[in-house]
Amino acid sequence: MTRVEAVRLVAALGAVEMALVRRDPVAGPLLAQAARAADGLAVGGLVAAAAALSRTIDLHGQTAGERAARKAAQALCRAAAQRCQAVALT
Question: Is 70 exposed, middle or buried, given 0-12, 13-18 or 19+ CB atoms closer than 10 A?
């Protein structure tokens, strides 16, 4: 992953994470876009897993399972963003 790719993904994943926190309707499409950008990169698996998880739940739902799945998707995005930050800062 190049620095440019890493910086782009840090920005995209930050937007995804905030959309998930706010239960914003654009969270799913933003996550799909980030997954496409990360495809083939070192963090691609993390972002793809978050995108797949988000497609299985109602991102606006309030059940315990939906909240837990949303938090898991957030954690996957955060882990991917941290790996990208490490590349961008080296």
Answer: buried
